[in-house]
Write a structure and sequence with these properties.
Blueprint (H helix, E strand, L loop, with lengths): L8 H8 L7 E6 L7 E7 L2 E7 L9 H13 L17 E3 L2 E7 L11 H17 L13 H18 L3 H15 L6 E4 L8 E4 L2 E5 L6 E4 H12 L9 H14 L4 H27 L13 H12 L11
């Protein structure tokens, strides 16, 4: 979450006239995240998140994203839901951008996830994959290998200005992944961005999943690899195998892995690390210092990528779990 586009009182009032939410009690921007402009809204009818879609979110993809949230919630997943306006629509235009009101979920995101939270996350991810299996819409992963090629070309000229040798690292890793990327793995709708700041907990239990705006159709095991990257490394860059084992064990208890998925895990983890290295690097190089947003350090994922390059097999991540 972040704020790139401001919303005036008049613009907000015109937008909210399409809903039945009562009087506005408070409205303020949220600084966390990097993708969209987000605001906390409190009204007489409750609390909500107002999102203006920026940058990578295309309006044409909103039926997929918002419909997926409604689909998952109907299956019992704790997802934030779009608030339908009086005309039944789930999004409309605000300040020249598509925008949606979302229900507010309680709980806190973990700053330093522990093994118990990783276990909760693994179970929720498996349930998400099973619940989305019959979702009628589909969306290609725009940030898989073809998207990485584009990002490498865009970032290479300035990559060494962030760290010497970074251009060589991203270029050589992309070439390796093009040769070794697996195909034919079990696939369906995945979250693709399930970082700790997109998950809420209360009293040790997972209470909410948010920010589905990278959701797409891809390999389920790739989604697991994204989470191993996001949840199981320590601040010094070391991989915590206890956390990895916790995540994998609860996932497989609900949705068992195939042997091909287990074998592919180190390659998928490398790909996930490169994906976030590249998108963070792109944002770092092209950051807007006037926006209310904290740009994340791309070098964190260069360190993680080095670990994955040394992983011989899934045992490096805590398998068998």
């Amino acid at each position: 979450m972040a704020v790139y586009t401001d919303v005036s009182d008049a613009e907000l009032g015109a937008f909210l006239s399409a809903f039945e939410l009562g009087r506005v009690l408070s409205f303020k921007g949220i600084a966390e995240g990097v993708e969209n402009s987000n605001f906390f809204l409190s009204t007489e009818r409750g609390s909500f998140i107002l999102t203006l879609y920026e940058k990578r979110v295309r309006e044409a993809d909103l039926p997929f994203f918002l419909g997926l949230l409604e689909h998952l919630a109907a299956k019992g997943l704790p997802c934030s839901l779009p608030v339908r306006a009086k005309d039944g629509k789930t999004w409309r235009t605000l300040n020249g951008r598509p925008a949606a009101l979302m229900t507010f979920l309680t709980g806190l995101s973990p700053r330093k996830p522990d093994a118990a939270q990783c276990a909760e996350l693994g179970a929720a991810l498996a349930r998400l994959h099973l619940a989305s299996a019959d979702y009628a819409l589909s969306r290609a992963n725009a940030l898989s290998i073809d998207g990485w090629k584009t990002l490498v070309k865009q970032c290479e000229p300035k990559a060494n200005g962030v760290r010497m040798g970074l251009a060589t690292l991203i270029g050589s890793e992309l070439r390796w992944l093009e040769q070794h990327w697996p195909s034919g793995l079990p696939s369906g709708v995945i979250h693709a961005d399930l970082f700790p700041d997109n998950v809420f907990f209360s009293e040790g239990k997972l209470t909410g999943l948010i920010d589905f705006y990278f959701a797409c159709n891809d390999a389920y095991a790739y989604d697991v690899a994204v989470c191993l990257n996001a949840w199981c490394f320590e601040g010094d860059g070391s991989f915590n195998i206890t956390k990895g084992r916790a995540l994998l064990s609860t996932y497989r208890a609900i949705r068992p892995f195939t042997s091909a998925e287990v074998a592919a895990l180190p390659v998928l983890a490398r790909g996930a690390a490169l994906r976030f290295l590249l998108t963070r690097l792109y944002d770092w190089i092209n950051r807007d210092d006037t926006a209310l947003v904290k740009v994340k350090d791309p070098l964190e994922y260069a360190t993680k990528l080095r670990f994955h390059q040394s992983a011989a097999d899934a045992q490096a991540y805590g398998w068998p779990a």
